[in-house]
Amino acid sequence: MTSDLVPRQEPKLFKVGDRVLAKGGFSVVALEEHLKQQLVSDVNKWTPIESLCRVFFGRVSEGNRRKMRNRVTSTSRELLKRGIFVLKDYSPRGSITRIKILNPSNSTEQVCANLQLERMEARGEVSKVQAEAMRKIIGAA
Fold first, then answer.
1. What CA–CA distance (Å, rounded) separates 78 from 45?
2. CA angle in degrees (0–180, nearest 5) for 8-13-19
3. Amino acid 19: pLDDT
4. Most buried among 8, 49, 68, 90, by the most CB within 10 A?
C-alpha cells in the first residue's frame, strides 16, 4: 500500500497587494521573517497582535488573538536561542498587545528590554542562563 500523503511544507509569507499573508499557517521561521521585514521597513515600528492574526490566521478574533499571544511567548524563547530578542508591549491587564525585534542601538528599547527581563525573572519565566543570554543580547552585561 502506497502512501498518498503529501509532506507538510514550511509556511511561507507572500504579498497580495499591500497585505502580507502566510501560506500554510504559523511557524517560528515565518514570524521571524515577518518581524525582520518590519524592522527593515521601519526600525521603530511595533507589530500589533491583530496584524499578526491577519497574516497568520487570515482574520482577527478573540480566539486568534489568544492563540497568537501564546505563540509569541513560545516563539520569543525560540528566537532567543538564535540571538534575537523580541520586545513585548503589555496592556494594563497584562496581555501582549504588540511586539518588535530589539534594536540594541536604541537606548529607549534597551531600557524596555531590561524592564521586560526583570518582569520575566520575577515571574520565573526564564532561567539564570537564559537571563544572562538575554543581557548579552540587550547589551547590558
1. 22
2. 140
3. 74
4. 68
